[in-house]
């Protein structure tokens, strides 16, 4: 048999007689070159897209309606290049990371660069909270307006300190903040491999998980917000808990005494059965990691009210399965209780009845966030189904991948626990229907790991070409759904410079105590002097009240503002408010156009400020002397 094998090998061509390692090396070199070529092609196509895309024509399908066709060639190039980068010998390099960075630029960088202004009204509100801290030098947890931000002010206090250091004003901060989605996603991409490497030694599965995460992260919580930053801290904390802080049988020296024994039992600082030099190094590493973990817990607690709940569930789950010391769960619980009792006590007292009343009301929580496709525009129906399809595809792939891992003999206890940990939020919070999106966000890193396992359930096979190209195609195809899901509401959530100018003028010049009637709470709002005004969105009124306004806008709105002191009442109507109303069916289509026309034609109101996309009105006996200007 050996002679026959030798003779057969001698009969082969010289190229095929290369040793296996040499053949693998040559194949890896070719794959690396092909991946790099795809990367360069995708980047070049992306630059062209940025240059020729005109966001002015965005319709109710969102950004996808104005993107040139070559963007899909860029997605295809990234998917193909990623498949090549997962080749054995290439996936150990940084090429997969570079392909994923390119994907982040395509998915999140495009909108940040194409649109001239900060997306999403809530992001402007967050800029306003920073402005408040800059002007007052502190934040008041007893303030009635935007109370949640005042009671979890971590992001805003730090941002204000940085803004003061560089003399950054609100409009300048908004210009910087519009790059938060690509920046935060790049940071997520750097942290996730540190988690996945604790679940598997297969680099294909590690990078595949990151790839799926980037595509699946469509819900838009990565804007300039406390939740986006707190999520980053959460991932960093989990990386420590499943990494250097993970318990092994040798940890927790039962023979120690005093503080050593206490630390060993509750924080696993020390171990036994190791050489003295190794023991010292490991102990120092664990102490440093433990201090970092506790610092992250404090930062999360001070930044966002919801994330600490997930932290407690995650740490508790890891402790229950014997992966983490009890001390971290106890510490997180004490920090959370202390924060709620001593800093956010007033706020918690005001919302506690609602928390108790809504505990466990999961059906309403979910139904509140499902779009009623019978009233929204045609484009928004497609956007809604695209988001559902993307979520379902990731979840289904995760289930199938988890089953493949199970059949292959893997027991992914920590990953399963961390996937299920956020589910408790559905019954324990009163965040409204938005909570289902938050559950998905916190579960997504681990759903993505299992989804990638559908393609790479084990690490033993060398014949993985089909799996590599399948996951690349999976990502490229879902990129279409991502653009619809993440950017499908851009006609509402993006703002023009003309809208920003009108809002800035109003917030800068309206006297403190003014009443600001808005068509809808969807425009660049509350980013300056936000505590000085009372906001009255027409779209948030009762059906009877809205019907009365639509029947006679000038008369009804005049009655609303009759008791307001002269010079302290304004009505602002913008393009983005109209898009919000028309696309989502909040009011009859064209309602704000009709109201705006009625106010322009009425003798009871005067136009005190107008730009291409915004109109500001005041009662005819008000607004005098404010330096009105019409463009």
Helix content: 55-70%
Figure out the total of helices.
Answer: 28
Mean pLDDT over the full residue set: 87
Going by helix content, strand content and strand pairing, the class is mainly alpha
CATH topology of the domain at 495-630, anyone?
A: Rossmann fold
Distance between the termini: 91 Å
Largest sheet: 6 strands, mixed
Q: What's the number of extended β-strand segments?
A: 6
Approximate strand percentage: under 5%
User: What general form does the structure show?
Assistant: globular
Which second-level CATH architecture of the domain at 495-630 applies? 3-Layer(aba) Sandwich
CATH class of the domain at 495-630: Alpha Beta
Low-confidence stretches: 1-21, 250-254, 269-274, 365-369, 623-631
Could you give the order of strands across the largest sheet? Answer: 2-1-3-5-4-6
Work out the radius of gyration.
28 Å
Keywords: Membrane, Transmembrane, Transmembrane helix
Transmembrane segments: 30-52, 64-84, 96-115, 149-167, 205-224, 231-252, 284-302, 309-342, 385-403, 415-433, 439-458, 465-485
